[in-house]
Amino acid sequence: MLEAIVNPIPGKNPPKVGHRCVMIANQPDIHTLHHLAGAKNSHSRRVLMSHLTWGHGGFSAGIIGPFIGAPYAVMLLEGLITWGVREVVFLGWCGAVSPDVHTGDIIIPSMAFIDDGTSGNYISGPSCDVAPSSGVQTRLKIACQNHHLRFHEGPVWSTDAIYRETHEKVLHYQSLNALTVEMEAASLFAAGAFRHIDVGCVLVVSDELSSLKWLPGFRNPSFTERRLQVCEMLRDLWPSCTG
């Protein structure tokens, strides 16, 4: 891999986030995890267009977000790495591509198909997919089981173009057994592997595309309930850790 001209640096007065962080794409889920983690007495600072908090009572990880899209997600991840973060869980929303997946379902990705412009910059040679940290994904699966949460495990499709999810592309990724489509997972997996840190992911299905018609589910009670349950699971993900 060629050497970059500009590299991330910790800057002045870097935050003492610890070794773990939850990256949350959407503001409502940030509010939920803040409440569950006891963020009242936490430390906080602005990071680009997002907000980072850490030191939440008994919760041993930082929380950062919101964000959208691969380039910005990776900018945040690069900053976290310079501050000492070595294990990341990404929580996001996604659209169902498989007819077996529906609004409110939980997804634990086994890999992400690359259809974004960021991931390839962190991978040597041509590649169509990238995998998350197996250790983090195993931890997430065990945590879901401990919370009695059912989930789907399989590939997801990462795109840059939310308004170019065409019939042809949906059919193509259905043929590859993709479960859902989202925007950040592949790039976070690729950048994490490049920087030698562990990045995992859990997604909640917000809408459906599998019939080639858009079925939004953002106001579906099952979507709201499942996001709360996933945040409760994340609160308990590192119960015995201190860093």
Essential attributes:
243 residues; alpha/beta; Rossmann fold; 11 strands
Describe the structure concisely.
This protein has six helices and eleven strands. It is α/β, with parallel strands linked by helices.
Tell me what you see in this structure.
- This protein is an alpha/beta fold.
- The chain has one domain (20-235): 3-Layer(aba) Sandwich (Rossmann fold), CATH 3.40.50.1580.
- The chain has helices at residues 27-37, 70-82, 134-146, 167-175, 185-194, 221-235, and strands at 20-24, 43-47, 50-54, 62-65, 87-96, 106-115, 129-130, 152-159, 180-182, 198-208, 215-216.
- A five-stranded mixed barrel has the order 5-9-8-6-10.
- The protein starts with 19 loop residues before the first strand and ends in an 8-residue tail after the last helix.
- The model has no long low-confidence stretch (mean pLDDT 95).
